[in-house]
């Protein structure tokens, strides 16, 4: 028996080799760190050695985990200004504009790749990695790590697959029926929306192209010397950025749409949710257990600070909550005076533990994708107050699928919230739909963490998985659109037309010539 288990362990060990993996997740935001930590957890479980570049270091140490701290990156993110709810309500911040995100994120990335701790890592020519997994967020600068370590590159995308990320491994989605990630519209589109989607696709592409000099300089400055140290030459940024082997997407069909995906896009939405959920702190456990009529959990995530919500809106919401039979647990960073008996305020909330509790009946969220995936995982219906980024799209899809309601943040919010809460709690169709989509979310061949592990190893074992590469990557855009053919047809038509005109004038002038001669002769 013992011998048998030893043999089995030996076989398992030989099947899954331990690799050295570099995880690049420097985006200064809690939700991005949650995605990074998901990779750390699964890859350590598989026995790999993980080096993790992060602005939020993990407390639990592990002999095979090395963390590279880039927390000074937070200084670049003026959260109070960028995510100020008042400015969002007053439309002072244009979060629907990808151009702003493209510009700002290349700045964040530039500071991360030039961070002294990161430079120390890449300048050390004894360092070696089997694969680099980097978060893609509006910039491809992190691709340079794969050039330094001469190893394959895997992108991790935090959002539903959209044109910008698919363009890196295949091509953009057809804008006629695929909204861009910041869109507030779902297909079928009106004529105007369809044209607008096309315009945004083209406009974003042009803007990205205009950023190329700026990004080339950033790329070369950060990576040239460390590649030279290893006796190689840094390839051009424009080649490296399209050289990712795979995109692992934090997406799932249950929250997204059945879009056209290339072989090297693998959806692993839900991998960040640990099967073992930490027990709740005693005060929270008591609030949850005591909520006999059910509990509504309200959190606007970690970026938006509740204190930037205008006072009249806070008061209005509290009045609505005070009339409910349910308890309300509000993640909020400040004390509120005259708190109704059924409303509890916590500055920090262990979201998974709360959603997992059977008394949690409703989740009021900004609609970030992590929250939507968690609501599907734990089967809790949502009310979304979309604020920025992909939240509008996520919430609109939840509404379309029938397991969520949307409420907009404006002076009407309290009234709308009251209607939405009552509808979801009283009409069984929301919970019914949620159960259907939750089933879709869970009904998979393999859990997402396993899928993640498999594909990371597959890319390493197959030396960058060139067999998964879309043949479209070799074809220039004008050839894909057959613009060369269109040009040829236009030129041919033009020449034929010219020739025809020429022939007709010659014939006509020949005829009139003959006529003139005839007249003269007569
Ligand atoms: C592209 O990736 C492959 C596989 O990882 C690698 O061999 C090649 O050198 C890379 N090319 C560039 C230009 O980065
Ligand atoms: C609250 O509960 C009481 C007693 O169970 C019930 O009569 C009342 O209609 C409920 N109110 C709401 C708003 O659901």
From TrEMBL:
Q: Which residues form the signal peptide?
A: 1-18
Q: What is this protein called?
A: UDP-glucuronosyltransferase
Q: Which family does it belong to?
A: Belongs to the UDP-glycosyltransferase family.
The UniProt keywords, alphabetically, are: Glycosyltransferase, Membrane, Signal, Transferase, Transmembrane, Transmembrane helix
Any Gene Ontology CC annotation: membrane
Swiss-Prot/TrEMBL catalytic activity: glucuronate acceptor + UDP-alpha-D-glucuronate = acceptor beta-D-glucuronoside + UDP + H(+)
Give compartment(s).
Answer: Membrane
Can you tell me where the transmembrane regions are? Answer: 485-510
Species the sequence originates in: Parnassius apollo
What does the record give under GO molecular function? glucuronosyltransferase activity
Membrane topology note? Single-pass membrane protein
Main location per UniProt?
membrane
- Write down the EC number: 2.4.1.17
